C-alpha cells in the first residue's frame, strides 16, 4: 500500500478548487484581531471597551496607554 501525502495548502483550498475549504488560521486570526480593534475604536459603550477603560483609564475620550502595572 502506498501512502500519499496531502499538503496543508491543498487542504485549505476552497471546495470549488478541490480542497476542503478549511481556513488558514493566521489570516483568520489577523482578520479577527482587526475586527476587535475596529470595534474598540467605534463602539464606546461595548463591554470590552468598558473593561479596558476601567483597567487602563481614558485620556481625551481614548484608552490610556500603559496604565497600572501588574494584576490583582
From TrEMBL:
It comes from the Eukaryota. GO terms for molecular function: RNA-directed DNA polymerase activity. Keywords: Nucleotidyltransferase, RNA-directed DNA polymerase, Transferase. This is Putative non-LTR retroelement reverse transcriptase.
